[in-house]
Amino acid sequence: MKAIVQERFGTPDVLRLADVDPPVPGPDDVLVRVAAAALNPYDWHMVRGDPLVARLTGGMGLRRPAALVAGVDAAGEVTAVGASVTELRPGDVVLGFCAGALAEYARARADRVVPKPARLSVEQAAAVPMAAVTALQGLRDVGGVRAGHRVLINGAAGGVGTYGVQIATALGAEVTGVCSAANRELVRALGAVRAIDYAVEDFTDGRVRYDVILDNVGNHPLGRVRRALTPTGTLLLNAGGSPGRVIGPLWPIARAAVTDRFVRQRLRPFLSTPNRADLLAITGYVDDGRLTPVIDRTYPLAETAEALRHVERGHTRGKVVITVP
Question: Which of 63, 46, 128, 29 lies closest to 304 in space, CA to CA?
Fold first, then answer.
């Protein structure tokens, strides 16, 4: 099968299209014929082995990538199921977390994929898993967002941000989005009552305070962001840093964790956890018409490296999707 492979850490130039053997599903897995995959900042972290300190955790690989085939998010048709799988069968069209998603075939745990909503194209479906689940778990579970809350989303026009605006709105919050001037209409259309142009207005000036802030950018010092929180508000740290760093986002995460012990505000870095229940919650929002993926642009599989360069620049409008022939 054709796949995007990575044999060493580096810039997106290390990615290449190659022929590899298709994965073999285990008893709890399904094999998916991938129709589309999506890119996340997570992917460039994995390609670059960045930040360097993260390689010590083992999941990324120390001297070389732990996984040969890149990618996590995918949508496509189930072609085979493991012996223990009962809820899915060949022919089902699914979306979810698939190991080695940037390939013609990818393996996934059966409890990490769900049926694709009929109202979504496969490209839209591929754009859902990581970004939407991150926004849901951050806002609903860590942030405790509920009706009447004021929520601010920094980076509201990006992948997690576009889902965050819609999910916080669905949870009953009054949402303010921070974005560029060019994206203000998009952010308002997604449900934000207010869209701030970051080039004109500084949301950390303390004039308005929020119950929950989802920070997808990390472009302000922690002390200033805290000025925009209520005295018992929650800051959700989801900023991924920039390529080429030894520590990357881990230093601000550590600082927030220490500060959290001494203040009434809740300063919470978080990582999302793939699971079927939350994917079903997301597809429920889709079926109800309360959530629609936003796609920045699509690239063919052979141009994945260029697509990842675009993601690295940090100004995507929604999600970047890879189509697989």
Answer: 46
Q: What CA–CA distance (Å, rounded) separates 249 from 288?
A: 36
Structural domains of the chain sorted by starting position, each given as residue range(s) with its CATH number in brackets: 2-128+293-323 (3.90.180.10), 131-269 (3.40.50.720)
Q: Which two tokens stand for residue 305?
A: 């490296």
pLDDT value at position 242? 53
Question: Over the stretch 246-258, which tens digit does the pLDDT of each residue have?
Answer: 445 556 666 777 7
User: What is the Cα–Cα distance from 210 to 222, expressed in whole angstroms?
Assistant: 15
At residue 265's C-alpha, the angle toward residues 260 and 267, to 5°, is 45
Predicted confidence at residue 60, as pLDDT, reads 66
Tokens read off for 37: 């995959």
Whether 207 shows a pLDDT value over 70: the answer reads: yes
Least confident segment among 2-16, 66-80, 89-103, 243-257: 243-257
CA–CA–CA angle 8, 10, 15 (5° rounding): 70
Other CB atoms within 10 A of residue 316 CB = 24
